[in-house]
Amino acid sequence: MSEVTEDNDFDASNGGSPDASGNGASEPPGGGQYVDPNGEFSRDMQYITTRITADGRDGYPVEPGRYRLAVSRACPWANRAVIVRRLLGLENVLSMALAGPTHDERSWTFDLDPGGRDPVLGIERLQEAYFARFPGYPRGITVPAMVDIPTGQVVTNDFVQITIDLSTQWTAHHRPGAPDLYPEHLRDEIDAVNDEVFQDVNNGVYQAGFAGSQEAYERAYHRLFDRLDRLSERLRTRRYLVGDTITEADVRLFTTLVRFDAVYHGHFKCNRSKLTEMPVLWAYARDLFQTPGFGDTIDFVQIKQHYYEVHRDINPTGIVPVGPETAGWRTRHGREVLGGHPFGDGTPPGPPPPHETVPAARQ
């Protein structure tokens, strides 16, 4: 779990720059400056590290119906939590608040809901849940975030730990046939793969896109594509990143790959190759996209709206591209010949609840 570089829980007295960060990152407010003029983009990895656990060690025990997962479909870090929740079948015990694809200088807003308020939390902005626990919270108002419904207070926004805890702490509420996304005997390997993918791919696209110098951009660019080449070699003879089934590692890589051609290739200048021009990774990504719980969480329209409308110092006009076409995501991938089974001895999740279904026109 070494993506996080700060292990202490948030302390409001620690200071930090106020922003309305998106994408699970400490970024500037919507419409502000995202490119670091000093050169290399550096992600603030200090999050609220309170955990929701089976034994309630931090004061927040796992309880059906008590917590609400706040996300935006636009955000790759939040997308991880949406996928894991779907795969594990936690929809009936952990409700989900859907923020819109853009945010302003204050925070993500629930502008998709009637009246612009989340129907369960009763708030217009996710910022309100953060301030309810930490008045004047000075760091990024990020998604995903777990909110305690009775108090309206944010519990954690530690996106790295949230999905691990859904797999390991919420087991009493997993659906029958749910996959083990973080099997104990593979955790060291999963963690090692996740570290490399985070540094060079998940965060690497941002380091390229938000670079403030040619040198910083080229360093990130080469790290990104060197790692993608290595991942292609790894996946050439194996269906999944670790073991014979989907794991946490596949979830984390997928959320970047699925956004690659729509956003990162052009908007972030990650343009050596499109995903569709990298045969192994393109087939791997389509395999996951067509696996229940992955592609049915993706809203390409909201993804593009977020990046192209919010990052105005990169895209000053706010014009959102029409393409690329998405029909290719449903074409045959042929990865079955490599063996393995997405859910091992388990079963795929059922269809998403009607109120959480992404319209086909947006996929």
Automatic annotation (TrEMBL):
The active site is at 75 (nucleophile), 206 (proton donor/acceptor). PROSITE patterns: GST_CTER (PS50405). One of its GO terms (cellular component) is cytoplasm. Residues 1-40, 335-363 are annotated as: Disordered. Residues 180-310 form the GST C-terminal domain. It comes from the Bacteria. GO terms for molecular function: glutathione transferase activity. Residues 1-10 have a biased composition (Acidic residues). InterPro entries: Glutathione-S-Trfase_C-like (IPR010987), Glutathione-S-Trfase_C_sf (IPR036282), Glutathione_S-Trfase (IPR040079), Glutathione_S-Trfase_N (IPR004045), GST_Omega-like_C (IPR047047), GST_Omega/GSH (IPR016639), Thioredoxin-like_sf (IPR036249). Pfam families: GST_C_2, GST_N_2. Glutathione binds at residue 108. The record marks 264, 307 as: Lowers pKa of active site Cys. This is Glutathione S-transferase. It comes from Rugosimonospora africana.
